[in-house]
Design brief:
14% strand; Oxidized Rhodanese, domain 1; 3-stranded antiparallel sheet; 5-stranded parallel sheet
């Protein structure tokens, strides 16, 4: 009995997922939705695309069952379908890191001066949080903080950080985190804090990596 008919029907289903991911802009949308739900207009502003263009990308992701929708008033809000979509995105990114030298080269090219060597492993931060031995700041936009954050973290969006310097503690390390390994908000925060004499570090990875590892979070 030939298995060819089965293979000719099952592999195209797998290819639907691959095809949905085969766009740099759709990957960026997934990365943003990993921080929390968004409506189309917010995604368009974030990605600097037109609403029509973002809507097309979202429909492709929706047809592949990678995102879901719900209505909030007159707006349709998009979210990742479940944590497996986030796991897939992080696995794809990890594979690219290991196979493509260009990824590391781009990280070095766009490194933020003053933040070098500041990464704090997630396990170490977990221990510091347990001992209340670190002050943790979430430097993502406030709307993302509201959808979930590290336990004990304080929301200080990076653009607002200069106005909060006087209120930050100097008797313990400050750990900044943002959207993940390829988000520069935390690096910018660390560079600013260090320039003002703080003992500052950025979390290795960020919110998505922390959450996908099933660590404790606050909502």
């Amino acid at each position: 009995m030939s298995h060819r008919p089965f293979k000719e029907r099952i592999y195209p289903e797998f290819a639907r997922i691959a095809a949905a991911l085969a766009s740099d802009r759709r990957l960026e949308v997934i990365d943003i939705l990993a921080q929390g739900p968004r409506h189309v207009e917010a995604l368009a502003e974030e990605t600097e695309l037109s609403v029509a263009n973002v809507s097309q990308h979202l429909q492709i992701l929706r047809r592949a069952r990678l995102v879901e929708t719900e209505r909030e008033g007159t707006r349709v809000v998009y979210r990742l379908a479940d944590d497996r979509v986030l796991e897939l995105w992080l696995a794809l990114r990890s594979l690219a890191e290991s196979r493509l030298a260009e990824v590391g080269e781009l990280r070095r090219e766009f490194a933020v001066p003053g933040a070098e060597g500041s990464e704090l492993p997630r396990d170490e931060l977990q221990r510091l949080i347990t001992r209340k031995a670190a002050f943790v700041i979430d430097v993502r936009p406030a709307v993302e903080f509201q959808h979930g954050h590290l336990p004990g973290a304080v929301s200080v969006p990076v653009a607002e950080l200069p106005q909060h310097l006087e209120s930050l503690p100097r008797d313990k390390p400050i750990v900044a985190y943002c959207r993940g390994a390829y988000c520069l908000f935390a690096d910018e925060a660390v560079a600013l804090l260090r320039s003002h004499g703080f003992d500052a570090h950025r979390l290795e990875g960020g919110w998505p990596e922390w959450r996908v590892e099933k660590r404790q979070v606050a909502i």
